[in-house]
Amino acid sequence: MARSAIECNKAIFDRLKTHAAEKTNSPIGAEISKTNYYIRSNADSKEWIINGNLDAPIYLPNKIIATKISLNSHQLFVVVSEDKFESVNPTDFAHIDQCFTDDQMNFPDFEGGLWTLILAELKIEPSIASGYEILQILITDEKANAIGISVDALKLFFPKIQIFYISENSIYSSFDTTQLFLALTLQNPNKLTLNWNKNAIDSFEDTLTVPHDEYPYYCLINSLYSARWELAFLEIYKQLEFLYSIPQAAELKRLIQSQISVLDIAKHVEDSLSWRASEEPSLAHLFSLLPQGIHDDIVNATANLAPFSAVKPNAAARIYKIRNSVVHLRPAVRPIEIDEDSWNLLNQELCKASINLYRQLL
């Protein structure tokens, strides 16, 4: 369904007027209040407003917003953030201003129309501007039914909007918004609160090498943006939790020779019968499906932790004990002391295990 450029512009400038009134602590003048404003754009640029397709945006810490936008065969990735993200693969995935000069643009002009689309659909607030700065561009001697404002004048009022062009033959062209933002984050680990090391970052990148439709990439993003290692661990652990009932559902599918997907069987059984797989036995069963090398790597990653130094090398039991120490706080369940290097290694190996199991089971 085509959008209305008039409605998009109205939404943007209504927010600007409201922001100006709140920041100046006084109502804006009647003249400004009744005037219609719009972002200047040419005919080609307006195509982005009318027909640009936005994926559902994702919202992240530090007021980061990301979405994928497509128009005809052209794909863009938009990140709203005060931090500047850099792409390490500029031939596949580059800042829009690094792709083309004005005479090389091979897709519809984007400036005014694309900005209108982004500001309207993502409902971005003019958080950078003072009320008086906004009023300064809205007050004009021009007499018209609608008054155009340049993109350059408005850019100063909003958080940085970074636009990446995705090459048609790039691996990124098949990625959704979550996968794209994960890829960009992994190329910019310096933006993260926790000190992730290169090996952990590389293990996360491996999940994108052979993208998996059912893999919960958003858990990896949540893990990377966590402020504590315990929370980062839990987000990766949740990926395993999603698989608890899948082996039993697969066996049920085989027995009844059903055409229903394994995921749907697992969902219907839980919804209809209120049956859920028990956590610790399910985790143990999942780990029994792992290649011995991955199992041993998890054991080695926990070997130096105090509770496990003299315990049988059972990877599932160790991960479950760590999980309990993070989730619960009782006299009998105390936090396990884990240093930064050990958290990096543990999360790295758990990520390897999760992607192996998703590729096996779904």
Compute the average pLDDT: 88
Cα radius of gyration in angstroms: 25 Å
**Residue ranges: pLDDT <50 for 5 or more in a row?**
98-108
Q: Please identify the structural class as seen in this structure.
A: alpha+beta
Number of strands: 8
- Strand-and-helix sequence, N→C? HHEHEEEEEHHHEHEHHHHHHHHHH
**Overall 3D form:** elongated
Distance between the termini: 34 Å
Contiguous helical run count: 17
- Percent of sequence in beta strands: 5-15%
Tell me what the structure shows.
The chain is of the alpha+beta class and 362 residues long. 51% of the residues lie in helices and 10% in strands. The protein has helices at 5-24, 30-34, 43-51, 96-99, 111-121, 131-138, 151-155, 177-186, 198-209, 217-224, 229-241, 246-256, 262-273, 279-288, 292-302, 315-327, 340-361, and strands at residues 36-39, 53-54, 58-60, 64-71, 74-80, 93-95, 146-149, 161-166. Strands 2, 3, 4, 5, 6 and 8 form a 6-stranded antiparallel β-sheet that branches. Helix 3 (43-51) runs parallel beside helix 5 (111-121). The two termini are 34 Å apart. Residues 98-108 have low confidence and may be disordered.
